[in-house]
Amino acid sequence: MASESNKVVFAALIGNILVAVTKALAAAMTGSSAMLSEAIHSFVDTGNEVLLLYGMHRSRRKPDETHPLGYGRELYFWSFVVALLIFAVGAGVSFYEGIVHLQNPEPMERPLINYIVLGLSLLFESGSWWVAVRSVRAEKGDQSYLKAIIDSKDPPKFMVLLEDSAALLGILIALAATWASVTFHEPRFDGIGSLLIGLVLAAVAIFLAKESKDLLIGERADPVMQTGIIRLVEGMDGVLRVNGLLTTHMAPTEVVAALSLEFEDGLTITQVERIVADMEAAIRKAYPEVASLFVKPQTPQIYEAAVARIEKGPEP
User: Fold this and answer.
1) How far apart are CA 101 and CA 130, in angstroms?
2) 22, exposed or middle or buried, with CB in 10 Å at 0-12, 13-18, 19+?
3) What count of other Cβ atoms lies within 10 Å of the Cβ of residue 299?
4) DSSP-derived secondary structure letter, 87
5) What residues form DSSP beta bridges with 245?
């Protein structure tokens, strides 16, 4: 999964570098506001891929005394930073450029350059976008793309897909703005194009920020995995009842699980230890994503009282 995510991000990085430089040259030669917004968007996306790669590298560090559960959530932190950059830099600059060109419209010079550059950009971005689409499609199953993105625990994949989708839409907006500016001899259409690009980036950034925030706070594992773990444990000798299971993702392929169990009466400590060791081995064989497993022997009454305390929250 990590190598697949690397492939998606590297493809996006190469595509964005090519697109950003091409758009920047075109913006300098034509004075197009929409093209400048698109160039800034692509430079922001390039920086974002670098941050995602950095986050992926940092998240693979081994656990230590300071972080006994590892550094997996660094990936979620840097994903959240990327979402903020898309909003603050990408959308912010696009809005600024759009307002400036509406207040002080200037005729576009050499629009043919814009058309050529936007066509090349569409080609470059489509290649990166297709790599991201294939990666998400391979894992989504019967889910819709939106549901797969919401359920995903791997930010690089869905962030690249949404970034590239926003980039493709932005290119189409820039093409329409260029055409309208030239056809109707009204340079304000160029500023309107920048504002629309800003709106697209802001919407994508808000969605990505929400998804990254949820992962950073801690999302449960796939319900199918949770049900499978419970059924596996319930079928083990010595286990009388599974009171409850808590899971949380530390990284896309790292899950921490905590089980509350009632063991059969009369078991010795040595027998319980053996059961727990067999349980951990069986769970990790069935679900390699479970990096840490905690087992707490409890009666149902004690477990329910603990859950009630948690749901009640701290005293004011």
Assistant:
1) 34
2) buried
3) 14
4) I
5) 259
pLDDT of the chain, 316 residues: tens digit per residue: 456 677 888 888 888 888 888 888 888 887 777 677 778 878 888 888 898 889 888 888 888 888 888 888 999 999 999 988 888 888 888 898 889 888 888 777 777 887 888 888 888 888 888 888 888 888 877 888 888 888 888 888 888 889 889 889 988 998 998 899 888 888 889 889 889 989 998 999 999 999 999 999 989 999 999 999 999 999 999 999 999 999 999 988 899 999 999 999 888 999 999 999 999 999 999 999 999 999 999 988 888 888 788 777 666 5
Whether this prediction's pTM lies above 0.90 is answered by: no
Considering just the CA atoms, what is the radius of gyration of the chain in Å? Answer: 25
Q: What is the spatial distance between Cα 234 and Cα 226, in angstroms, rounded to a whole number?
A: 12
